[in-house]
Amino acid sequence: MNKRFLYGFSGGKTLYISTRGNIEKQTSAEVIALGMVPTGGLFVPENIPEVNWQDYKDLDYANLAYNIMKLYLQDLPAENIASAVKVYSDGRFNGYNPVPLVDVGSYGFLELWHGPTAAFKDMALQVLPHLLTSSIRTLGLDSEVLILTATSGDTGKAALEGFKDVSGTRIVVFYPAGGVSHVQERQMTTTDGRNTHVVAVNGNFDQCQTAVKKVFASDELRKKFNESNKILSSANSINWGRLLPQIVYYFWAYLQTVAQGKINAGEKINIVVPTGNFGNILAAYYAKRMGLPIANLICASNKNNVLTDFFHCGIYNSNRPFYLTYSPSMDILISSNFERFIFEMTGRDGEKVSSLFTRLATEGIFEVDSITLEKCRQNMIAGWAQESSVLESINIVYKEHGYVLDPHTAVGWKVYMDYREKNDDDTYTVITSTASPFKFAETVLLALKGGDNKNYDPWLALNELSDMTGWEIPTGLKKLQSMPVRHNNKCDPEKIASYVLAFA
Q1: Domain residue spans in the chain?
Q2: Best CA proximity match to 239, nearest among 349, 112, 148
């Protein structure tokens, strides 16, 4: 692919509105700086630009990212966006192709985990710090930015790695104690950087996320931070600046599918996404809205199958047991980005969305009308995988194709197989591979060898999995065991606000 830029998008600047209709229109700089709507709700573009994907077919990844992101960031200097996307070509992602599509016949795995932390979150979180600092400069502010992030595993380390030692920022990551893998926890707690803080929370991810959202919605806390010339922002996908770079790799997936001869130009593909907080599959939805030829979006859940149940009956009910599973990054019952999707499915009815998600926050449940439900079903298919099926899937794919799945990608593969069997659909399908299998080596070995995963030492498991499969351990994971733990803070969910206040 030739390295070139496509300048020349014309028209007015893209502005942003709230999913709850409770704030005036904002520029992209304001949206990225704020993270989420202070009074509740999420920012979405006022208009979704339509493009011709063929205009991008000669671009490398960095320039593809530039051209797509520029459509949504028209108030940021073009040179700042061009500088931000250099992360995809400066060596921090392995090789020329940062997101390879590995074909296994009638489907392919889109490997999103070749960045510094071996998870798909790197694709956005290596860019977000550049977008945030550019937004702050564009707004003419000299404030320090405090980044608050709740994580179910992967976002935490990716955000820490992206923001560490970035001038004018501090980052605090909250994760559920006992609710992430050994590798994920060690990745976070060993992070260096003068501006990084990591806190284990005595609760689950939903409790972490809810507490962080309450901080953003607190007039009192916001006032105190304003008085000390500090801005609160987020590295979660509630921040549009986090979500936007994820749209790019779906265009890249399609371009690779065509280039590999798997489809003819213009033919549609299916996309399968293992889903937790709904940001990754929402990015695919926006790519489709922009004109990318996508037939079906398939939302894959683990045993915490609140999304699957919603698509079946129209009721979103988080009042249910919370399960710790083999795919911990998907152990979520309140999917934040689902609000953006419902906003689109209701015809952008902010009043209705506000009512639904206020009820979710207070009662843990809401129900949509039949028209909205039908529109949801027209735009997305949902399924889920049992725990035993996750292990089986890892084993089958390795035996049949020599390909190693992490447990989250295994959820996606199983749901796709169920879908294909039921619908007899031979459309070429891209399954997003969201993390390196080495981040969950004990579970992968359990799937491949059997036994009890408690018998697998998390650090010996890395080498054993490498020896068994011939796959190399990602560079960022090789020395984790010997790295000193730098963060050992703990708190209860109800203490998160107080912890944050100490930074004001």
Answers
A1: 241-472
A2: 148
